[in-house]
Amino acid sequence: MNQQLTTQRNFDSMRKSLNTLGSSVSAIILALSICAVLLLVTGKDPFAAYSKILETGLTGEKLLEMLKRATPLIFSAIAVAIGFKMNLFNIGVEGQYLFAALIAAEMATHVSLPRPLHILFILVVAMVSGAAWASIAAFLKIARGVNEVISTIMLNYIALSFIQWLFESFFRDDSDGGLNVKTTKIAPSGRMPDLVHDRLNGMFIVALIVAFLYWIVVFRSRFGFRLRASGLNPIAARTAGIPANRMVLIALMLSGAVAGLIAMPAVIGDVYGYGPSAIATQFGFAGISVALLGRNHPLGIIGAALLFGFLDSTSAVLQLSGIPSSIVKVIQAIIVLVVVIVNEASSRRYNRRTAERAAADLKSQEVPQ
Amino acid sequence: MQSGSAKSSQTLSAESAHVVELANISKSFPGVIANRDISLQVARATIHAIVGENGAGKSTLMKILYGLHQPDSGTIAINGVITQFKSPSEAIAAGIGMVHQHFMLADNLTVLENIILGYEPTKYGVLSLGDARKRVKELATSIGVDLNLDLPISELGVGQRQRVEILKVLFRGAEILVLDEPTAVLVPQEVDELFTNLRKLVANGTTILFISHKLDEVLSISDQITVIRQGSTVSTVSPKMVDRLKLAELMVGSDLPSHGKRTTLVGEKIQLSTNKLTVLGKDRKNPVENVSFKIFESEIVGIAGVDGNGQFELCEALLGLVDIEGTVEIGGKDASKLSIRERLDQGLAYIPFDRHREGLMLAASLWENSLLGHETSLSRGPMIDFDAAKKSCREIIDRFGVMTPNELVPAFVLSGGNQQKLVVGRNLATAPKVLIAAHPTRGIDVGAQAAVWEEIRRSRDAGMSVLLVSADLEEVLGLSDRILVMFDGEISAELDPKSATPQILGKYMTGTQ
Amino acid sequence: MTQSKNFRLFVSLLAALAIISTVRLWTSQDALTSSDTIGTALRLTVPILLAGMAGLWAERCGVLNIGIEGMMIFGTWFGAWGAWQFGPWAGLLFAILGGVFGGLVHAVATVRFNIDQVISGVVINLFAFFGVRYLSELVYVGKQGGGISQSPPQKWALPRFNLPILSGGQIAGWKSPDFLGWLELQRWFILGDLGGISRGLTHNLSWATVIAVLVVPASAWVLWRTRFGLRLRSSGESPVAAESLGVKVNHLRYYGLLISGGLAGLAGGTLSIVASSYYRQGQTAGRGFIGLATMIFGNWRPSGILIGAMLFGYAEGIKLVASDSITALFLFIAAISGVFLVVAVIRRKRVQIAVALSAFLLSAIAYRTVDTVPESLTQALPYLVTLIVLATANQRLRPPAMAGVPFRPGEPH
Of A211, C79, C130, C395, which sees the most CB atoms within 10 A? Predict the structure, then answer.
């Protein structure tokens, strides 16, 4: 009996995971079909495009590039997902990570520490800076009731200007010469070693560690439970003694701290500094897509980041074979749009089925007992 | 029959003495019979009151009249013509207007815009505001209402908002007005104003159905009173023929359960007490005023009262959700300055009024729901002990008889009664010192009700103190060791359940004494 | 009552004019109110204004529109394409259609499928950004002057005109006098400023600008004077009440979003057709979000949005035309806060005194100490102002009560 129950339970939770995976996969297939139509309409051969993507993407070199491109996406998506788990929409990841990148790159040049400590110092500074910038939105929400969606949008643009001003006025170092001005180059002790020379930086491992920690903290720990409870039903959580304001502050700061790591693969793994044209932007928004596609689950996020990284890695080659390279970005956007729609519909259907099945289970249980 | 025909049969209506005639209306929902064979006749241009306790079936009856529900059996006749309303719009077309207890107004739109919305006088799609303004002004004057039509609703008081609702209904040409608990939200002066307006309305030929449980008001305003108890009509009386006492008796009934016997004694240690507890109303009357009481170990103190007399705010104050004056002591220690978490750690537990709003995370699994509030004890270090949490949930499921396939299903799949059992179980499982139980059995079936009562009794016998808030007299009388009656934010009486009669309770609950 | 209100408005406008005129003469920064500055400001105001109105239409019907930026991007691209192919007027039409397409996607996602409104908006922004890049790759790459991030230049421009007699416009081939231009050149107290401002608004004016400005009274009229407008607003304020009175809330949300998208598209069109003559990637430069900020600043009212857009447009305009005049603005702000300070002291409003005093001191110090304002910080102005407004006046803002909340008719609420 007990054995049977356990099997039943495992089966139930498996069914839920399968349902999630199934709806995501079918959404991706649907999105790819929509893109195929789009390609056809614009006079391109979708099969040629897709087979080119697969063909070039599945080489060893490109797979390494996939991992490299997935790294910042994992950080970004986890930053967004922490907010989502508490029903907070942190659109400000963009501003948080760029701010953190500049501060960390600059601070890195002001200390001299042995290698592991120097790297650790830079990562901590990045996380603290990201958290600090995010805390502005948290403060505005707690003290003044300002919706975090609006405030983080505004703070993104304020961050961009602020960063530009800081950089131009104080941090830029022209001694290197050349067009791409940067902050002073970070000493070798502060550089994260590559896993595969010039192809994949050690920050990829950090990203996996952060994903694991995210799972532990948010899904397994007491704090994480409180965080999720506040997102699921804030009033019930408050009635059960979970302080709402403090959770908002902590959640947004944690989100900002993880956001602070997004640019680190570039800052300490590639560029060794901050420069307006050397640090890629838009990861904050891409992270929202990846978090949505990965449904805020660490494995889902890693999978989605790898998918996006895979698509990105093929764009340069596509261009060479006459297929507009931006199609991969269009595919990504369509995937996300379709996935959220399909998820919404399928979770509603799943809920209804679960309710029906529970009712049926109860009926069948009553007899033997 | 089409609803429109009710209006077209003007000749008939002149002959029919009764504007509204409900005959043998029955309506049941899964597990509950809301209305049983209700009949009712309302004469033209009169105020007809429908009184009854919470849950007696008044609202369901009015929703049937307004087309929100369809009756299982029975007929509705308007102006002598039998009609069926499939939706509110058909009822509106037949001249019925409803003023809901919770106003349906758009706060940022002006008074005039709210009144004309959906029924706008226009010329080529352009609002004829002058025309509308004139008509609304006329209507307002005819019932003695003075309103600035250009103010946004957000700047109006509750009484004025209600006036807007009434005008809105009249603007659509309603001749029959249903007012659902119109005085529940008003202060006495506002009630007087409302009654003045209603009398003018009746003088203009409007018929009013007035739902209430406030006997004073009912006696002063109505021409006829129909009493409903447990879904059935008890009788229809004229206010001249009855007094408050008689009405209270009709409303509450006299066949109440005997007090449950107990074998253990009430302890001597005070577990929960308040001293001059006041909850400050923001811009209205204080919802709780100067409430002092003590609850001893192993004692159930019932707070009887009609909903909305400050019980909800009292519970929030005890839990630490609102700012208070006065003190709260838990287990003999001052808890007035403690946070919710600290109060819970002192041994307080709370079964909330509304399990969906304050109690459950519907999308989360049962074990996560039973974990809420007990994270500290079901953890190992900083991590949740999943096995312990699931085991604890299974224990609750077994002990309280929650009907569920397992503890992994999300909470929304459970029936209301089983959800409630889970919430009750979550709060009793850790053997708290003090339990605040607000409507612990509201909306659940008889079997679940008995189970919950039994568990509360058992915990009481084991030493727990209980503050039981309920509008259900059967529950209060059957469970309590002592009864406090709450009326208008204050404790109006302390009674012994063994000697308390429903008449006496009814009097205090309705503020008659 | 309205008369005294108009009088008050007139007096405060005159006072503001007097102050800026004093500041201009004191600092000899004629650019503060030159027709050149005002004309540039007006050009920069238009897209922000339209984006703000796009936000207004969406939120008034109950749907947040974070996707305005994306809808504007569609507007810039399709507008430029249409103008390149068929001429500027057709271009504006295509710009509107491009925006409407974005609005339709938003409506289908949020109203039909109940997707979170913020998520839908964010995804539309991404989709638009990369979608038009893809289209550019298809259409513009290889064309003369075109490329993946840029369209070929348009051959025709929209006609511009000067107001006759006042600003030197032509009447049947006769060049009438430029009276305002002459007045501006006299540099007289108040009159000179009046001349500069009026000439800036009436000189070298594009018809598209006129249309854009007319959107404000037209929207106000439709929203507040027609049945459609009342019902649309009720869908954003209290969909439950509206539905109970027979209003088809979700239909109205569709219409509201289509109009919102159309206005956002037009905003994009003015960037790629009026303000320049080609499409360029990143042309919108966050103006969709400035529009959103303007909508909040303007308290969800057309007149407020107009004022906000003019303010932000002016700040951007003066930066472009005469960046060294910006410091003079500090003096202007100091003077204005000084006036407010006096009023607050008379009225004995403590909070107002504190705010006015700190604004006065800050701007006075800034005027004395700052020589040049870094451009990067002036860029942040609209966002900073909006955050301050949100943080200080949150209670006085009146957003549509149910904007952002999905509505499913027939479900219990």
Answer: C79
